[in-house]
Amino acid sequence: MTVTIRQIHPVFVGEVSGIDIARALSREEVAAIEAGMARYAVLVFRDQKITDEEQIVFSRNFGAIEDARGGNITKAEDKRLQTGMNDVSNLGRDGEPLPRDSRQRLFNLGNMLWHSDSSFRPVPAKYSILSARVVNPIGGNTEFADMRAAYDALDADTRAEIEDLVCEHSLMYSRGSLGMLEYSDEERALFRPVRQRLVRTHPVSGRKSLYLSSHAGAIIGMPMPEARILLRDLTEHATQPQFVYVHRWRAWDLVMWDNRQMMHRVRRYDEGQPRDMRRTTVAGDAPTVAQVG
Ligand SMILES: [Fe+2]
Fold first, then answer.
1. If you measure from the C-alpha of residue 115 to the centroid of ligand 1, how many angstroms do you get, rounded to a whole number?
2. Other residues' Cβ atoms within 10 Å of the Cβ of residue 207
3. pTM score > 0.90 for this model?
4. By the 8 A CB rule, do 281 and 88 touch?
5. Which of 34, 176, 225, 239 is the most buried (most CB within 10 A)?
6. Given a cut of 80, is residue 1 above it in pLDDT?
7. 139 phi and psi, to 5 degrees?
8. DSSP code at position 269
9. How far is the CA of 31 from the centre of ligand 1 (A)?
10. Contact indicator for 190, 70 with CB cutoff of 8 Å
11. How far apart are the CA of 7 and the centre of ligand 1, in A?
12. What does the pLDDT look like over 181-210, one tens digit per residue?
């Protein structure tokens, strides 16, 4: 089989055919996917019936699996999936949808804000790989916004203004914007803000992109309201329809995206019915800027 990629959106996103990711990939197949990621930033694979183990093996072709600690409030004893898998379903350990007042559920609603996975880590994520095991009957689309196209469309003055800005990212900023303001001391320590550049350059393509995320809540050296307005304004610009692809899930879709050049969000769905989505995350290899403290 030969890997072929067909662009399915005017500015990004490729649909991949000619590959069975449940099998061990050849070096050429891995190289074709890496090249496709650098170019399209989101790749869609249809009809990939995989187990968690197969998803982990596939993901390791592209780097180490990110350590998920500090990325959620879910306690170890409440986890449904094995280490290495990020559970982005609406299900508890018993396989049933989480109750409405579940803190875990409320925290996970933050995935409905535009974000880049793990931008709250000192070394933020490279790729996310999401497998649809059970698709919710109503809603639950995932939307992707191309931060390269958004950057390219900025005027020269704005580009110059933001070139060297550094933001603070934390899960407490994204959840705080939803009114979740109470955290234990342990959570506060885990969710301590990290620094990220606002403009990133992709290591393979050399393209610049906005590094935005709902986790971004401050800009170093800028008064808070001014920083929040700038971030909000840039986010509005970057998520205009011409930069956005809407993925309508089918069971056994696998979608892979580059967090260094994308934002994404999930849309509301029927939370009384299951939505079983399982993510693996490929770790990044460097911070975007030196951390302090
Ligand atoms: Fe996400």
1. 6
2. 17
3. yes
4. no
5. 239
6. no
7. 70, -155
8. B
9. 25
10. yes
11. 22
12. 999 999 999 999 999 999 999 999 999 999
